[in-house]
Design brief:
Layout: E1 2-6, E2 9-11, E3 33-35, H1 37-51, E4 57-64, H2 68-78, E5 82-87, H3 94-108, E6 112-116, H4 127-135, E7 138-149, E8 152-159, E9 162-169, E10 172-176, H5 188-194, E11 199-202, H6 204-207, H7 235-244
Parallel strand pairs: 1-4, 1-6, 4-5, 5-11, 6-10, 7-10
Antiparallel strand pairs: 2-3, 7-8, 8-9
Helix pairs in contact: 2-5, 3-4
């Protein structure tokens, strides 16, 4: 079974984002970029499935600028077999990403597509669900455990009340939650080997997908500054304080 793993190049999770002076978006100039953390988890899961013999090939896909090649090389160094970059300098919204991934899925015919549950830059949490709808496949979102059993996959999901396990018929879409696994680091020999693994480039136009944005960003602003906390000596003092602030009557 072939596995498709979409990986997005995003602002590194350790970087504190800065908003552009004109409020039009986040300033990405000279900012460290990395693979979206949930996608590292998706890739790690795909590699483990291949190591267990449940999958035969892993194809990593990214949609983004030419620099997203670096993200794909990281994916290849971690263990993907080959990579596809759909190049565009435009911002691509989840629906357009899902449409592109559908085309790639039509070409590649994977048994499962494992995505991150969300990209940490836009926090949309939409692409996997939209892709499942476009392909007409079952979906198991927020996976904390993935087990393949013949022609189906059991996905344990983290839901409010605890854990829920759903059985999906393959081909299917899985999106990963934080506790699914701990991704491996790429070793130096594997980073070297990754340089000669196949990476092909395509464009949205070649795939026949219109990526024109459907949304306009009105304004982006920094979160308001938090005030420093204070220490109170007793519960009575806390209640007095809350009354003064009008929080309790
Ligand atoms: P989102 O719906 O934007 O929160 O993204 C959810 C998941 O979709 C991500 O974790 C990735 O697996 C995938 N994804 C979103 N955008 C891209 C992209 N530009 N290239 C590759 N994968 C993407």
């Amino acid at each position: 079974m072939k596995l498709l793993v979409p990986v997005k190049r995003v602002i590194d999770y350790n970087v504190k984002p800065r908003v552009k002076a004109d409020g039009s978006g986040v300033d990405l100039a000279n900012v460290k970029m990395s693979m979206n953390p949930f996608d590292e988890i998706a890739l790690e899961e795909a590699i483990r499935l291949k190591e267990k013999g449940a999958a035969s090939e892993i194809v990593a896909v990214s949609i983004g600028p030419a620099k997203a090649q670096e993200t794909l090389r990281t994916a290849l160094a971690m263990g993907a077999d080959r990579a596809i970059l759909v190049v565009t300098d435009q911002e691509v919204e989840p629906l357009a990403v899902a449409k592109i991934l559908r085309k790639i899925a039509d070409e590649e015919q994977p048994g499962m597509i494992i995505l991150g549950k969300q990209a940490i830059d836009d926090d949309s949490n939409q692409t996997g669900q939209m892709l499942a709808a476009l392909l007409g496949w079952s979906q198991g979102t927020f996976a904390s455990k993935v087990e393949i059993d013949g022609g189906s996959v059991d996905v344990t999901r983290e839901v409010d009340g605890g854990l829920e396990t759903v059985r999906l018929k393959l081909p299917a879409i899985v999106t990963t939650d934080l506790r699914l696994n701990e991704p491996r680091y790429a070793t130096l020999p594997n980073i070297m080997k990754a340089k000669s693994k196949p990476l092909v480039q395509k464009t949205p136009e070649e795939l026949g997908v219109d990526i024109a944005p459907r949304l306009a960003t009105v304004r982006v602003r920094e979160p308001s500054k938090r005030e420093a906390g204070i220490k109170l000596a007793s519960v009575d003092e806390l209640i007095d304080r809350l009354k003064t602030l009008g929080v309790v009557g």
